[in-house]
From TrEMBL:
Gene3D superfamilies: P-loop containing nucleotide triphosphate hydrolases (3.40.50.300)
GO MF term list: ATP binding
InterPro entries, sorted: ABC_AA/LPS_Transport, ABC_transporter-like_ATP-bd, ABC_transptr_urea_ATP-bd_UrtD, BCA_ABC_TP_C, P-loop_NTPase
Gene coding for it: urtD
Protein's recorded name: Urea ABC transporter ATP-binding protein UrtD
Record's keyword annotation contains Nucleotide-binding: yes
Pfam families linked: ABC_tran, BCA_ABC_TP_C
SUPFAM superfamilies hit by this protein: P-loop containing nucleoside triphosphate hydrolases (SSF52540)
ABC transporter domain residues: 8-247
Keyword Nucleotide-binding annotated: yes
Keywords, sorted A to Z: ATP-binding, Nucleotide-binding, Transport
């Protein structure tokens, strides 16, 4: 496959903080339709790698190509507009607004610079809210206030809020932390549906969930890429067992 066919191409990415390399010469490629999971011990550089992709942190060396866009030096808000959505571990919704309103305010319409992503009419907005609410198991909860949802529902709502702007790349930080087994299974199913027409990059510690969702896995250790491959490759990799899975 040529590099042009990747949604995301990260090449030799390094970021140093006062000489300490939090991410050290990491390359990673993401195809359309792929769920790619990043694992590794605490301090491995997983969060910093996502910070680099979304523009929160700028690399010292290397490049980040997203479709035809060079993200390496692009400002954070422009990266969002190009179609990169990120969800942090703690759900961040509007607690006083209903599910419907949370989705509505996340709709890109009327935000000027969002232009290219803007939907055309109220009918399209209604349709999109309905479609997204159904996708995230909240179609019967549209009138319910955000803070009355369960922890898992809040996580789904935040994913739904990102989906309102139809990102091509969705980045999620430990999306099933604190969820029940049922909610976790539903989240795996949700990600399987979401990735049909986009790519998903997930930081995860839960190996069972990783096995359920990952097409490919990247293992980071001390900022460096330790291994990359399918879950079967990763689980049988001696270096990975030694530094991560064996603990
Ligand atoms: P992980 O998400 O895998 O637990 P992080 O990406 O949060 O790891 O952190 C990797 C390393 O980089 C840690 O040692 C952390 O302390 C360090 N680090 C991250 N951001 C900064 C920063 N802004 N300044 C200095 N050190 C940082």
């Amino acid at each position: 496959m040529s590099l042009k066919e990747y949604v995301l191409s990260i090449e030799n990415l390094t970021v140093s903080f006062d000489g300490f390399k939090a991410v050290d010469d990491v390359s990673l490629y993401l195809e359309l339709g792929e769920v790619h999971v990043i694992i590794g011990p605490n301090g491995a550089g997983k969060t910093t790698l996502l910070d680099l992709i979304c523009g929160k942190t700028k690399p010292t060396e290397g490049s980040i190509q997203f479709g035809k866009h060079e993200l390496t030096t692009m400002a954070e808000q422009h990266i969002v507009q190009k179609g990169v959505g990120r969800k942090f571990q703690t759900p961040s919704i509007y607690p006083a607004l209903s599910v419907y309103e949370n989705l509505e305010v996340s709709y890109p319409r009327g935000r000027g610079v969002w232009g290219a992503l803007a939907f055309q009419s109220d009918e399209k907005l209604e349709n999109r809210i309905e479609e997204v609410a159904k996708m995230i198991y909240l179609e019967d909860w549209l009138d319910v206030q955000g803070d009355l949802l369960s922890h898992g529902q809040k996580q789904w709502l935040e994913i739904g809020m990102l989906l309102m702007s139809d990102p091509l790349l969705l980045m999620l930080d430990e999306p099933v932390a604190g969820m029940s087994v049922d909610e976790r299974n539903k989240t795996a199913d949700l990600l399987g549906r979401i990735c049909k027409d986009r790519s998903v990059l997930v930081i995860e510690h839960d190996m069972k969930f990783t096995r359920d969702i990952a097409h490919r896995v990247t293992v980071l250790h001390q900022g460096k890429l330790l291994a990359e491959g399918t879950m079967d490759d990763i689980e049988s990799n001696e270096k990975v067992i030694e530094v991560y899975l064996g603990h």
